[in-house]
Write a structure and sequence with these properties.
Blueprint: H1 5-24, H2 26-34, E1 48-52, H3 59-71, E2 82-88, H4 91-102, H5 107-115, E3 120-124, H6 133-138, E4 140-146, H7 147-150, H8 194-200, E5 204-208, H9 216-223, E6 229-234, E7 243-246, H10 249-254, E8 262-267, H11 270-289, E9 299-303, H12 316-325, E10 333-337, E11 340-341, E12 357-360, E13 373-378, H13 388-391, E14 412-417, H14 421-434, E15 442-444, E16 455-457, E17 468-471, E18 474-475, E19 500-501, E20 507-508, H15 529-532, H16 536-546, H17 554-570, H18 576-581, H19 583-611, E21 615-618, E22 626-628, H20 650-659, E23 667-672, E24 694-698, E25 703-708, H21 717-732, E26 737-742, H22 747-755
């Protein structure tokens, strides 16, 4: 399953955080990336980060890709083995997650198998009651559990099976060196429980829908399980969460993952709301039939009211009776409520399926979605706090993750029975917010001309092309600098590699002393047969899989790895066991070595192509007429190329406010150049592209790229590289292109220079 751009962004930021954590610790790493203080209120010194993703973003897939990144960096001492506790908020989500993880043909399981060399074992919390020591010693054991299964009420002493004595688990407690952190009974004897097995193995904890753990009881029981790292995925983080990644609804819309905006209409009479829902579904089906490429059968979800002996509620049977009277065939109607699941065994995406209406109360709130669900009819008195806000998430997923030519098929629809429209809108907006969206993703169905607030048109008619570094009339790519003539096997493969030893002279895995939150992990590390008796071929295959230089020929890469290992064994006098035990430290050294070789080569090639004039600048792609914003600034800027702009930090905001003033009358317009979203970037000899923060166009048709830097980063290696390639871009422009690095100390000087252009 190929990751979407926003999913790659989440993993890239996590990678950056993890690598920096090894160097400076997780507190400083988090602050350096987010410019926010790290919060340790919940889990003390245990690293704890949050990935904020709206409903429909694919949290589980991002989680699967995150696991290997964590295990090859801050948890490298575990040698890709041990326990992952994957907490989900309900039994419905638990069943859904287990189904994905246990199916070896599912993309989620394939991601895990590829990352951990097929040594992955999946357990429910019930199955884990029989987990063997050998399972944990030899595999990545992922235990999928509902939060409820581990909640231990210490006041009432209510204990679940995971905390109880279990003879099946005796082997885990043999020859323990340290047991002070384990739970004991009233006699001081260690309880042979699953919870204690988990504590021994210092698990990585994954929390799906992390906001569900906000009670002190939930936080305390997770902390009590002796976690080594905690990562949560949620649409609505708690105040104590460390939000490392924030994915906006607009990013999902750009990838065609969701049917946004949601269009709302309300009616006082429930029959009117249902009639409108039926009519809209029929209208969408007629539109869908015009598309010959994709099969879509729009489905309407109908939220009825629960049975009541007091009130005359609109129940599921009342709704079904009304649908039948409306001449809808019974085979097109199913009911899904507690104890009555007519959806069982039905493939709603099949073109042979007849279902067009699903009646529920709140059984679809979690653990179910179908991209064909376009319409939600809520007859459940939306003014009350019934589960309408959770059911909203069930109609958001876009069929085939592909935008449709007919705009009506790119939207979701809600028809609500409510006393007034504002009352219904308030509840729907609240529901959107609980799914990680906002009021910007909502449209009043009565206002046919209302646009989408997060879609912003340009304010100037003139097309904007910013010349890009190009090669052979196309934009330059990193791969252009390597081509077929680069041979890794012929490069220098020699480097020194030091092994760490314990007091008895045995090679041990590298763990820095300052990483004290990994509680003496090396003492509990069990080196199994595969670590001590690894073959040279096994080690080469492992390194080849972990080295992610996809633009290099595999044959070349393997030949180079062989030479590296031969040098370490014969000249550097290391053993395969030593290299194997320290494999992640060795992998890091090898990655750095190859990166150094590549950078030296590509830099030489880059300057060579400039010298021969094969690299130039060329206008290739224009800025679009409409862009989608995540978080906008409500402020209006007269010279902004777009009518509204993306949220900026306080220093960047001060800069654009200055650009917008009449004191710079030569500026025609400026644009915020968003990383990986907007078309302009500068490609140099390093793999990553450089997106300058702002582009200014003057009335003399000069183009100025501005990069804002905090004072602590002005002299960093990354900044120096960006400035060097930007000055090359400027030179290639032959007097029409300009670049300036801006910071607090030189802003007046730079603005004066811009004023003269």
């Amino acid at each position: 399953m190929e990751l979407k751009k926003y999913q790659k962004k989440a993993i890239d930021l996590l990678q950056k955080f993890l690598k920096e954590s090894i160097r400076v610790g997780h507190n400083y790493s988090f602050m350096g990336i987010t410019n926010q203080p790290y919060k340790s209120d919940f889990f003390d010194n245990v690293p704890f980060v949050c990935i904020k993703l709206p409903t429909g973003a694919g949290k589980t897939l991002v989680g699967c890709h995150a696991l290997p990144e964590i295990f090859k960096t801050v948890l490298k001492n575990k040698m890709e083995r041990g326990v992952v506790l994957w907490f989900v908020p309900s039994e419905a989500i638990k069943s859904q997650t287990l189904k994905k993880f246990k199916d070896r043909n599912d993309g989620h399981r394939r991601t895990l198998d590829q990352a951990f060399d097929n040594k992955v074992t999946i357990f429910s919390n019930e199955e884990a009651l029989k987990i063997r020591k050998g399972d944990i010693d030899n595999n990545m054991c992922i235990v999928v559990a509902s939060l409820e299964a581990f909640r231990q009420d210490k006041v009432s002493q209510k204990k679940y099976k995971v905390y109880k004595e279990n003879g099946e688990l005796l082997s885990h407690f043999e020859n323990l060196q340290d047991n002070n952190f384990l739970e004991k009974d009233e006699n001081g004897t260690i309880v042979n429980s699953l919870a204690n097995v988990i504590r021994i193995n210092n698990p990585l904890v994954v929390i799906d829908e992390g906001h569900k753990t906000q009670t002190k009881l939930s936080i305390d029981f997770i902390k009590d399980l002796n976690p080594s790292f905690i990562i949560e995925y949620t649409a609505t983080p708690r105040s104590g969460s460390n939000i490392l990644v924030h994915i906006s609804a607009s990013e999902l819309k750009e990838e065609h993952m969701v049917k946004i905006p949601i269009v709302l209409e309300s009616s006082v009479q429930w029959e009117n709301a249902l009639d409108r829902g039926i009519a809209k579904r029929n209208e969408l089906e007629r539109e869908a039939r015009k598309d010959k490429q994709e099969y879509i059968r729009p489905i309407t979800l109908i939220q009825a009211q629960s049975e009541s002996k007091i009130n005359k509620n609109v129940t599921v049977d009342t709704v079904k009776s009304y649908l039948l009277k409306s001449k809808i065939p019974e085979e097109e109607i199913v009911i899904k409520i507690s104890g009555r699941n007519e959806l069982e065994g039905i493939n709603l995406l099949s073109n042979k399926c007849k279902v067009k209406y699903i009646i529920t109360v709140n059984a679809l709130a979690e653990g179910w979605d179908c991209s064909f669900a376009y319409v939600l009819v809520s007859l459940a008195n939306v003014g009350s706090k019934i589960a309408v806000e959770q059911i909203i998430g069930r109609i958001l997923r876009m069929p085939y993750a592909k935008i449709k030519e007919n705009e009506n098929l790119n939207r979701s629809y809600i028809f609500a029975s409510a006393k007034n429209f504002n009352e219904a809108a308030e509840v729907i907006i609240s529901g959107l917010e609980n799914n990680g969206y906002s009021k910007s993703d909502f449209i009043n169905g009565r206002n046919k001309n209302q646009g989408e607030e997060f879609e912003v048109r340009r304010a100037f008619e003139k097309d904007l092309y910013v010349p890009m570094v190009s090669y052979e009339k196309e934009k330059l790519s990193f791969e252009d600098l390597i081509k077929e003539d680069f041979k890794l096997s012929k490069q220098n493969y020699k480097f020194e590699f030091d092994i760490n030893y314990d007091n008895d002279g045995r090679a041990i895995i590298d763990i820095k002393n300052e990483n004290e939150w990994i509680r003496e992990s090396q003492k509990s590390l069990n080196l199994i047969y595969q670590d001590r008796n690894i073959t040279e071929l096994d080690f080469i295959v492992w390194l080849d899989k972990k080295l992610r230089f996809r633009y290099l020929e595999r044959k070349e890469k393997i030949t180079f790895i062989k030479k590296v290992i031969e040098y370490q064994l014969k000249i550097n006098k290391k053993t395969l066991t030593e290299l194997s035990i320290n494999r992640y430290l060795f992998l890091e050294k090898l990655e750095n070595k190859i990166s150094e070789i590549l950078e030296k080569y590509t830099k030489k090639k880059f300057y060579g192509l400039i010298k021969t004039k094969k690299i130039s600048v060329k206008s290739i792609k224009k800025f679009p007429e409409t862009i989608s914003l995540g978080q906008e600034i409500p402020q209006i800027f007269n010279k902004s190329y777009y009518k509204k702009i993306e949220k900026l930090n306080s220093e960047e905001k001060k800069l654009v406010e200055r650009l917008d003033l009449d004191t710079l009358p030569n500026i025609e317009y400026w644009v915020r150049n968003r990383e990986k979203k907007d078309p302009f970037y500068i490609q140099g000899w390093q793999k990553n592209k450089f997106y300058p923060d702002f582009v200014v166009v003057t009335k003399k048709n000069n183009i100025v790229a501005l990069e804002w830097k905090g004072e602590d980063r002005i002299t960093s290696g990354d900044t120096q590289y960006k400035e060097e390639i930007a000055k090359i871009w400027e030179k290639l422009g032959k007097g029409n292109l300009y670049f300036f690095l801006v910071h607090n100390k030189n802003i007046e000087e730079i603005l004066l220079k811009v004023k003269k252009l």
